[in-house]
Hints:
By secondary structure, this protein is an all-alpha fold. The protein has helices spanning 19-32, 39-48, 53-57, 63-82, 89-106, 116-129, 134-160, 166-176, 179-190, 196-199, 202-222, 224-230, 235-243, 247-270, 272-279, 283-306, 308-311. The chain folds into 2 domains: 20-130 and 315-330, Orthogonal Bundle (Farnesyl Diphosphate Synthase), CATH 1.10.600; 135-306, Farnesyl Diphosphate Synthase, CATH 1.10.600.10. Mean pLDDT is 90; it is low at 313-317 and 325-330.
Amino acid sequence: MPQDIEFMVPMESRVSPEMDRARTRHMAWVRVAGLVRSEEALGRYEFSRVADSAAYGFPEATGEDLDLCFDLLGWFFLFDDQFDAQDGRTGDALAACQELTDLLRSGSPETAVSAPVVAAFMDCWQRMSAGMSDEWRRRTVHDWVDYLAGWPTKIADRVHGVLLDPASHLRARRRTIGVRPLLALAERVGHFEVPPLAWCSSHLDGMRIAACDAIIAMNEIHSFEKDRAGGHPNLVLSLMGHRGHSQDEAVRQVRETVRLSVESFLELRSGLPHLSRVLGGGAPELDRYADAHAAWIRGYHDWGQAAPRYTARDHPGDLGLENLVARKPG
């Protein structure tokens, strides 16, 4: 499916000016972290440019802040693809989900973590949470745990052989797309925090859902060929299977989801001054939080249209790097 399908995303295109520098440094981090162990795997990972999405989603980040964003986005994609593996790694990946959940709930590990994917995440988490409030930590741990809990559900549905209906598919993807932790990361690298009462409001939750759905819908189109080739769930396939749409009709429906989600986000954003007045302040933080949503909607759009992960035709696009979750020898 062509990557130049147009979406209604009327936000400004931006990218961090330090993308090239951060990419070079990130490639060294991936190797040192043990996430990529062979030259062939390193070449595939570098070709994918998945971590470049950080420069689009966090266009104002520079220095160590952008480095953290690159590392975490690289981790996201590497971790994600292990659940599409067909060679037995899925069980290890599920174990990593449980270990990470336990570590997030208990705090810093008391003993050395030997699984590269766990150790790499904990390195990112320690940097991500540094200097943030206890309130921010509590809600962000909740978002991470919910993200991790979404993967066993995805595996169970695959084993069951169920093709989720479109609404159920979208609900499931909201957990594993990882947008909520990335919005928390935007607070961290933006050096601000949303006031607790405002963050808990249905108004901001609606903004998060709208941004999430817009990104999911674009991703479902970009990854359609990869998902179909690998037998993975996809919203386009769900619409075809449950509603009898042709492929073109299903794609049009998913594009409409993008449009409606962006419109919903923009409408909710326009109501932030009222929310700030009613709750007694926090206008600058709410504006920056809304900017983070807009940056990710537009950033995913721009990165996804040209990402080699989806445009390559000689392989399905999954990274599937060997030994990602295996424990280090010795």
